[in-house]
Amino acid sequence: MNAHVSQGGWPVLVLNADFRPLSYYPLSLWSWQDAIKAVFLDRVNIVEHYDRAVHSPSFEIQLPSVVSLKSFVRPTTHPAFTRFNVFLRDRFVCQYCGLDGSLSFSAWLSLSEDHLLPKGHPRRNEPAFRVTACQFCNVSDNHYFAHASKRGLAFDNLSPEQLVAQRKPFVEAVRAKYHEFWQAKVASSGLQSRK
Fold first, then answer.
1. How far apart are the first and last CA of the chain?
2. Shortest CA distance to 11 belongs to which of 72, 75, 27?
3. What residue spans define the domains of the chain?
4. Residues 6 or more apart whose Cβ sits within 8 Å of residue 129
5. Is the preceding peptide bond at 21 cis, omega within 30 degrees of 0?
6. How many CB atoms are closer than 10 A to CB 23?
7. Which helix (H) or strand (E) holds 139?
8. Are 70 and 43 in contact (CB under 8 A)?
9. Which residues is 67 bridged to in the sheet?
10. How many other C-beta atoms lie within 10 A of the C-beta of residue 64?
11. In DSSP terms, which residues pair with 134 in a beta bridge?
């Protein structure tokens, strides 16, 4: 229902027949060309318009800024499964170290999505079994499944929260090893940390 909105401007907000937006993320917008076409096809009512008009040799119409559909479109009951919606569900926070991706642009860029189940597991790609993780934590748990199989840790009957809790100590241990390694590397090179 969301058409491409041109860079030239004059986007049109599209409301359902009950005057609610069709979607919020992303906001339901049409280009002004698509809105004019829908007006001529008698599919929408113009609610508000811009102070600008378009002309043909025999006709002039003001550009709509808000339109409402004449027939009601039933909203989907389940939101689309996207990385962004996983981040929204987890409030842009890494589920392992607690890095808040909403604090800075660089922190937001470091967010990724982590699978809680190994490749080949039938439930691996379900939204509940994907969580937000910073890139460092996501890379830190690369060898987790090999570690878990050596220790006999189960995956099948655990909830996503239990899987995160089971994996968290492993990720923290790997992070600590990386930290110790780089502290020793910096100390041996004679570089001092800046405070």
1. 52
2. 27
3. 12-69, 83-189
4. 115, 116, 117, 123, 160, 163
5. no
6. 17
7. helix 135-140
8. yes
9. 14, 46
10. 23
11. 111
